[in-house]
Amino acid sequence: MAVRPGGAAAPPLSSELSPVDGLAQLSFVILGMLERRAAADDISIAQIRLLGVLRDRTPTMNELARILRLDKSSATGLVDRAERRGLVRRMPSVTDRRAVLVGLADNGRSLISEVAGGFETDVLALLDRLPPRDRQALSRLVSQLLVTYAADHGIDLFATSDPESR
Amino acid sequence: MAVRPGGAAAPPLSSELSPVDGLAQLSFVILGMLERRAAADDISIAQIRLLGVLRDRTPTMNELARILRLDKSSATGLVDRAERRGLVRRMPSVTDRRAVLVGLADNGRSLISEVAGGFETDVLALLDRLPPRDRQALSRLVSQLLVTYAADHGIDLFATSDPESR
DNA sequence: TATTGTTATACTCTATAACTATA
DNA sequence: TATAGTTATAGAGTATAACAATA
């Protein structure tokens, strides 16, 4: 925490954070929640991201690397370790004998559900600190922000893509 | 991205994310901005966190590890690598000959300022997507959320602590 | 004895470069 | 030739356990 941007501005005196600082700290808090839930199941954020992507996709290694913004070799290692733990499976592509499809194994599906459920509990508990009207307002504003941002960056925010299109 | 919690709920049909999903994705976007600015200066998030903490503190290794929630040995390695790059300095404590104080070197101070400045630019550009009233509302809600959360978790949100108390 | 910090070691995660096998 | 994936290798980051110096 505490990246305190600017170099210029002094820390605030009141009990209100700067918008930038607030969003930065909130991001650390929220990803910290995810990390703690993951650690409770002895798994890393990288593995959680992998399993999260595979929840609604069965991509090739190549697509997987692109989605996670990793080098192909990093994806190989990530999938290797997940496969060794029985969380994912490699399957041959029927249309391209060079390609390898990656899918969730049952263990992986239950694990990601558990972690995601715990994470949701944590975030909802955090939101419960606000009165209902504020909670709704925050949720709306965050959505609005993301929708415009995602549109400009070619991100599919609601990515539930066609499993098996190969 | 896409951790999509729950296992229960289906993805939304409208153009509004669930509150949990929205906050999670927003967190990834914001920390991604920080990571990209850091990478532009060829430095990691871990190093940025270290330098960020040292902006307004000169802690012992022990305190540093506690603040960053790392094992002492991890802090040793982190500071080793930062020191090798001339970003921080180790200094002896005058009151406890076992202890080692860690402080920013000039290079470290200019580097963290640059990264933090760029990050601030990015986040402000993101916030500019909202009309001013919404922007203010979001900022207020985020602050409010953090203040209550921090109070309950013993986190000093406005940490500008006494440099040199040893 | 307890605490501070480092070292030795091991594992995960990431990237670059070189390689194999398909296309 | 170009693409998909793996392997070899290197470095950062983290943790546990053992250790030296000091309190």
Structure characterization notes:
Two copies of one chain form a homodimer. Chain A is mainly α and 166 residues long. Chain A contains six helices and two strands; from the N terminus they run H-H-H-H-E-E-H-H. The first copy, chain A, has helices at 19-40, 45-54, 61-68, 72-84, 106-127, 132-152; strands at residues 88-92, 100-104. Chain A is globular. Chain A starts with 18 loop residues before the first helix and ends in a 14-residue tail after the last helix. Residues 1-13 and 160-166 of chain A have low confidence and may be disordered. At the A-B interface, helix 1, helix 2, helix 5 and helix 6 of A face helix 1, helix 2, helix 5 and helix 6 of B. The structure holds a DNA duplex (23 and 23 nucleotides).
Sketch the major β-sheet of chain A: 2 strands, antiparallel
| Sequence of strands across the biggest β-sheet of chain A | 1-2
| Terminal residue distance of chain A | 43 Å
Overall number of strands of chain A: 2
Structure classification of chain A? mainly alpha
Globally, the shape of chain A reads globular
- Give the helices and strands of chain A as they follow along the chain: HHHHEEHH
What fraction of the residues of chain A are assigned to beta strands by DSSP?
A: 5-15%
Please, what is the oligomeric state?
homodimer
User: Mean pLDDT score of chain A, rounded?
Assistant: 86
Measured by residues with Cβ under 8 Å of the partner chain's Cβ, the largest interface is: A-B, 65 and 65 residues
Give unreliable regions of chain A as ranges.
1-13, 160-166
DSSP helical segment count of chain A:
6
Proportion of residues in helical segments of chain A: 55-70%
Over the alpha carbons, how many angstroms does the gyration radius of chain A reach? 19 Å
